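MODEL INPUT / OUTPUT PAIR
PAIR INDEX: 1
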Amino acid sequence: MYDGHVVVIGGGYAGVRLARRLDGAARVTLVDRKEVFFHRVASLRAGVRPEWTHTPFIPYDRLLRHGRVVTGKAVRIDTAERQVALATGERLPYDVVVIATGADYPEPARFTGTTTEEAAKSFAEHQRDIATAEHVLVVGGGPGGVELSAEIRLARPDARVTLAHSGSALLDSAGPARPGRKALAWLESHGVEVRLDSFMSPGTAFGTYRDARGTIVEADLSFWATGTTPNTLWLRLAGHGDWLNGAGRVKVDRTLRVAGRTDVFAVGDVNDVSELKVTPAALAQADTAAHNIRGYLLSSGRHRKEPRLYRPTRRTPLIVPFGPADGLTVLPVPGGETAVLGSRTTTLAKAKSLLTPYMRRQLGYTAA
């Protein structure tokens, strides 16, 4: 029995989880500009190591048993006609629409183009650049910058690698100071130069970079791991700028509905929920939204479900690999304390496989 049309715009972690949760309960259409799911967690290693080039790409063809996946770009949500307009001119009717367009990440954690071939070519270019660089500069000392620096160092033990961070400690978003100290110790013990309190910007000459004190750093290759940008420009261009906050994120209430709309939801990196934007949080939001969408579609019947309020994850686990066999795991424990676990736990939990078997199963494939 199908209780309505649900159009999910965006096939990232939150969109895939929500579409799968609703498949069979509603007529689900998942729209994404990419032809495959992009497992971003594996992208940093894919940008460094050739044998990982195709690992982040998982086809959508086994995701939905009853619904369908459309490759295309959404350009407008017509709330009057309750339709999603695609760049091709196709219009998808909906009873509920979900915005799950995520955020744009800096290279190499980015799906370039729309096809697997285009994205794989981009990864191969990064691999060649890293393989020949004499000095690689990574800007940003959060989880992504630390992980990328470690991957580059292990792939290129003979190259000079510098990690520049504007803060006074690495992994400062993790809360306690111990994870940052542990990351710093690992990087320095492996010959990575770490520059703290070093806000970097491009210099006046090609291949030069300047910090806030005017110090010049020369590098023939650089990567910027300094944050993400929500993919919401299309909403602003379509006349829905009032749905966005000052940072460009979609404003939602505690049920994950877009403010003022009963039939429009937003989940994952794209919304303004105040929490660390990590994969477990995106999956939790998708589960809450799926429950509330079912309740909305059944609201006129005797099986009505009360809305579930989403509780932002204040203390989420954080896993930072240092290559495939080392890293650290920040694990919240009862009482407000935090445990910092080492290489064995991190390797088993993420570092070795980068959660690839788990995501393959989520999309209907075997773990291998």
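PAIR INDEX: 2
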Amino acid sequence: MDSNFIDYLLKITHATSCNQLEVIQLLWSNYGSISRYELKNSPLKTVVVKFIDLDKETNHPRGWDTNFSHQRKVKSYQVETHWYQQFSKQCTNLCKVPKLIGSFSQANKQYIVLEDLNENYPLRKTKVTLNEVKVCLKWLANFHVNFLNKKPKGLWKVGTYWHLATRPDEFEKIEYAELKAKAHLIDELLNTCNYQTIVHGDAKLANFCFSKDGTKVAAVDFQYVGGGCGMKDIAYFLGSCLSNNELETYETELLNYYFDELHNAFNTTKFSFDFLLLEKEWRQLYPIACTDFMRFLLGWMPTHQKINNYNKKIIDSVLISL
């Protein structure tokens, strides 16, 4: 690790020395790493450092190594740094995120130093119970109300990594003619809805950290945070952790739970409009959001397991309605 960064890390944490305990994971396409550091004689025992190296040759696992793709990732790390600096402190414990300790940049290398969530949120899950799905939906509901009607200044104007404007290469690959023809209309419906919030933008199960008892979560990875309809997070999240049969069985129950939690969070605010107007609009946009993500997958990886019967039925119903 760069000596200038180490000096910075020791200064902001008031530590006398530090030691890299582990590399938690490598960043997508070889852009850097996320590591845990142990600190000596600091109020903080450990911190997590997200290191981004924009000089490295990229190696996209599916071959999408274009300059357009590279620039999108460059901006995503700038957005994430801005998110932690300007927005993350607005999150409550009901939509917990790691606290920003500091950020450091040198040439094309960036470092984001974050609170280590492991003490209170040590579990990462690849499979979840229905109750654990609901815990994540509660986090998303509180996050969406927390940023309802707030401008995503300095973030992505349109959040999520798959929205149409940022995926022209994948769009050209789509072989589903009717979906391709109506993709811009679907995108417009989501981007111009009356009730906008700030969406996480990559709200998959892997980006939620669970407490030991599974009753609370914190979320990480804010590279694609930005403006949008909350249903984009919900459609993406449910698809990330539920099978085709589970989606068909529990869709109604889980959407009802999300909107109940959204209503509970809404009731703690001073918005002057009727919550039912928001709920009606977003419920109607849930299948639109599902179809929008499927549009991305059908161009990016048409054999993906998430393109299942549940989503195919939704696509067909949306295309008929438009």
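PAIR 2 NOTE: DSSP finds nine helices and nine strands in the chain.
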